[in-house]
TrEMBL record:
Ranges in coiled-coil conformation: none
Location, primary (coarse class): membrane
Positions of the Endoplasmic reticulum vesicle transporter N-terminal domain: 8-97
Organism: Salvia splendens
Record's keyword terms, sorted: Membrane, Transmembrane, Transmembrane helix
Keyword Membrane: yes
Compartments it resides in: Membrane
Pfam families listed in its UniProt record: COPIIcoated_ERV (PF07970), ERGIC_N (PF13850)
All residue ranges annotated as the Endoplasmic reticulum vesicle transporter C-terminal domain in the record: 157-345
Highest taxon of the lineage: Eukaryota
Transmembrane feature ranges: 29-51, 326-344
Protein name (Swiss-Prot/TrEMBL): Endoplasmic reticulum-Golgi intermediate compartment protein 3
Record's keyword annotation contains Nucleus: no
Family classification: Belongs to the ERGIC family.
Length: 365
């Protein structure tokens, strides 16, 4: 039994010296304090690193069917009153709504940008607007010729013209925001004065080149936002001075993170939180084109958003590092700091002793 205890003591990696053999020094105390501060700092850093999450990207084929695509719009038109603005949408399936006002608000703004009135529109009826084409190279009002004559406008149209001119003279603008739910196919939507009759528009603006479609995009997205998402059009400001034209935003290519290739169109995305909650949304990137309109052009200005959809879904999953990984890193940094401060203490002790020896020799002499 005694031999076993002796053998057990021989493998002790942490032998202890007698207390009377230990010498405490001021340099050792200083190094100990510094070491404790460093270890506490590293512990907090490692704990924060462990509690934080990171994301993993995966790709798969998009299998969704029959779902709608939500388009979140929040835009300001500082030079156009709400009465002349309409939101139109058309997709590749041939579905087309004029003044598509599903869950859309129009806020009247004064010249200082303050809200002076609101209007909530929630129906899909064309509201008496005449049909029109959407090709920039065609007059979108040419089918209304048999309904109106330029010198024979009814009282309602005359009243609207007077109201809009008064609003423009006062510098009124309009903020359009809300959600459009469109079919999950390629298409476009645009905000313009296309809802007006051609003769009413001519009376108000005296030509398409005088329609100022200056705009500020506060938010344009295709679904809710998740941590880290960047919508490229948020905060975009396009202000025209003394000119007019059509803006086209082509939502055609999304540059996915390395090592995935670039994906075409709006990319369906699922964000999976650490709590297992799933947030469905979409990512996109955009290119921009501006086409100026001159005095005698028949096209009317508008702000177009043309989009396509990618057949690939990106899944972004939040994950947390394992507890064993945390313990391993913690042991490494704390053990390394303890060993380093021990070495530093020995070096400082030897340095102090080396400085003391010459002084003691001088005193003996």
């Amino acid at each position: 039994m005694g031999n076993f205890k002796q053998a057990l003591r021989s493998i002790d990696a942490f032998p202890r010296a007698e207390d009377h053999l230990l010498q405490k020094t001021k340099s050792g105390a200083f190094v100990s304090i510094v070491g404790l501060v460093i270890m506490a700092t590293l512990f907090v850093h490692e704990l924060t690193y462990y509690l934080s999450t990171y994301t993993v990207h995966q790709m798969s084929v998009d299998l969704k069917r029959g779902e709608t695509l939500p388009i979140h719009i929040n835009m300001t038109f500082p030079s156009l009153p709400c009465d002349v603005l309409s939101v139109d949408a058309i997709d590749m399936s041939g579905k087309h709504e004029v003044d598509l006002d599903t869950n859309i608000w129009k806020l009247r703004l004064n010249h200082n940008g303050q809200i002076i009135g609101t209007e909530y529109l929630n129906d899909l009826v064309e509201k008496g607007h005449v049909t029109h084409g959407h090709d920039d190279h065609k007059d979108h009002h040419e089918e209304s010729d048999h309904k109106f004559k330029i010198h024979n406008l009814d009282e309602e149209a005359e009243e609207m013209i007077k109201k809009v001119k008064h609003a423009m003279a006062n510098g009124e603008g309009c903020r359009v925001y809300g959600v459009l739910d469109v079919q999950r196919v390629a298409g476009n939507f645009h905000i313009s004065v296309h809802g007006l009759n051609i003769f009413v528009a001519q009376k108000i603006f005296e030509g398409s080149s005088h329609v100022n479609v200056s705009h500020i995009i506060h938010d344009l997205s295709f679904g809710p936002k998740y941590p880290g998402i960047e919508n490229p059009l948020d905060g975009t400001s396009r202000i025209l001075h003394g000119s007019s034209g059509t803006f086209k935003y082509y939502i055609k290519a999304y540059h996915s993170p390395h090592p995935f290739p670039a994906l075409e169109g709006i990319v369906p995305t699922e964000y999976k939180y650490i709590s297992k909650e799933v947030l469905p949304t979409n990512q996109f990137s955009v290119t921009e084109y501006f086409s100026p309109i001159h005095e005698h052009d028949r096209a009317w200005p508008a702000v177009y958003f043309l989009y396509d959809l990618s057949p690939i879904t990106v899944t972004i999953r939040e994950e947390r590092r394992s507890f064993l990984h945390f313990i391993t890193r913690l042991c490494a940094v704390l053990g390394g700091t303890f060993a380093l401060t021990g070495m530093l203490d020995r070096w400082m002790y030897r340095l102090v002793e080396a400085l003391k020896k010459p002084n003691s020799r001088n005193i003996v002499r």
